[in-house]
Structures are given as structure tokens and as C-alpha cells.
Write a structure and sequence with these properties.
Length: 146
Amino acid sequence: MTTVKFFDPDYIPDGKFTYSVIVARYGGRWMFVRHHDRATWEIAGGHIEENETPSNTASRELTEETGAMEFDLVCVATYSVEKDGHTGYGRLFFAKIKIQGTLEDNSEIAETILMDTLPENLTYPDIQPHLFKKVTEFLKSRERIL
């Protein structure tokens, strides 16, 4: 069983951060990505590299995976995922993409898609719906236009 928990954006866990995940919108629609090796859809994100902050990772991954060239980025929450007795921590971000470029030829992402809702065919169906819901609740609570 997988358990996803949320904490304040400034919460620092005892363990180190592993991931930054970015729920993104462009042109009034949600953006999802598909990795070359998969047939499923994902929220943009990735591993935090050594000497990289979660915010730096979020900016880098958003650009690499979506082709975003200009965007507003805000941290929504710190989150944890517990699975098989192991707990990992990440930061969850929301990005409003202002200017969209193209994916680099050497990108690990095969394509992006814009949708009105979360896709059914998800790479991580036990995690991604929780992250997506947290971001939509965050935006609604701040009266931001989806």
C-alpha cells in the first residue's frame, strides 16, 4: 500500500528530499508528459541532484520535460510517499507556463499533452492523483484561476 502525506511548504524532513514534482498549466489546460520508455502519462518532475535545491530541480525539470521557457513557479507543499516500509520526501510545485518552447531532441520525454483533467492512464496511479488534487485545492483556496 502507498501512503501520500502533505506538510507545509517550509517543512524540512529528517531525511533528505528526493523529488520535485511540478503540476503545470499552459493556456488554461493541464500539461502532462510521456516518457520515451512508457505508454503512460506523468506529472513533470524528477530527482533532486546533489547540491541542487528542490526549487532549482523544479525549474530544471519543468524546462527539460515540457519545453517551458518562461513560467511562474510556486511551492505548494512538502510531501512524503511511504511504500513497502520506505518513506521518501519531495516538494510539490505549481507552474503557470507563460511561454512554451519545444522539447530538446535528446529529451527523455517523447511528448506532452494538454488536458482539462487528470489522464486515466497514469505512470504512478497510486501517487499522482493525490498530488494533482493537492494543487487544485491549493489554487482554489487562493482563488487563482485554473
